[in-house]
Structures are given as structure tokens and as C-alpha cells.
Amino acid sequence: MEQRDYVRRILEVYRATPGTCGTVRRPDRLLAVQLHQRGVPLDTVENALTLATARRLARPANAPPLGIIRSLAYFSPVIEEVLSLQVGPEYFRHLRRRIATFTPVP
After folding, report:
1. What's the alpha-carbon Rg for the chain, to the nearest Å?
2. Could you tell me if 25 and 71 are in contact, meaning their C-beta atoms sit under 8 angstroms apart?
3. How far apart are CA 78 and CA 34, in angstroms?
4. Can you tell me the mean pLDDT for 11-23?
5. Three-point CA angle 45, 30, 38, nearest 5°
6. pLDDT above 60: residue 105
7. Which long-range contacts (CB under 8 A, 24 or more apart) does 55-62 make?
8. Confidence band (pLDDT; 50, 70, 90) for 16?
9. Residue 103 pLDDT
10. Predicted local distance difference test score (pLDDT) of residue 99
11. How far apart are CA 87 and CA 106, in angstroms?
12. Minimal CB count within 10 Å: which of 4, 50, 80, 105?
């Protein structure tokens, strides 16, 4: 995949990720370029955003609210974690289904 398409796709997924501010800044673009240059697979980045979102949504109902994610860099540690995971794609499909049907507990 060409760098331009890779960066565009990552930024689209980032903006659509629940809990993000939906704004892309220059450092976000630079990080996406670096991920491409490192050869990080696109699905790894998408899976990392999914995993981080699922973790944020799974917090106890009485926990204080989390702030808005304002940078793609927030997901960097999870991207590194997903690179080392030995989990099949079914797990991330499961998480995506759970996120899509998530209803917050009042």
C-alpha cells in the first residue's frame, strides 16, 4: 500500500474511533507516516485502536470519566502491544461487535 493511502486510512480510522476528538493534527500525520515507514501493518493499527477503545469502554460504571483522546500517539503503546500479541483476527472482530453494540451503564 502506498504511504499516502496508508496514512489516509489510519487517520480515517483514528477520527472515527470512539473517545477521540475527531481532529487530525500534524503530529498525527507524522506518526502515521512513521508507522508506514516501519512497516507496521494497517490491520495492526486498526486492531490497536479497537483494543484501546474496548478497554476504555469496559471500565467500571462508577469510575471517573476519561478525557477525550486528542492524539494518535495515545495509541502508540497499544500498537506496540498488538504487534507482539498472538491473537487471531476473530478476537478483534469480536471486540468490534461488542463496541458497536455497547450501551453505557448509567
Report:
1. 14
2. yes
3. 16
4. 94
5. 55
6. no
7. 56/18, 56/19, 57/18, 57/99, 57/102, 57/104, 61/104, 61/105, 61/106
8. very high
9. 62
10. 87
11. 32
12. 105
**Residue 49 is placed in which grid cell?**
485502536
Q: Go through the chain and tell me how many residues it has.
A: 106
pLDDT tens profile 38-86: 999 999 999 999 999 999 988 888 889 899 999 999 999 999 999 999 8
Quick one: cell of 37?
515507514
Helix axes 3-16, 42-57, angle to 10 degrees: 10
Nine-digit cell string for 24: 487530525
Which amino acid would we find at residue 68?
A: I
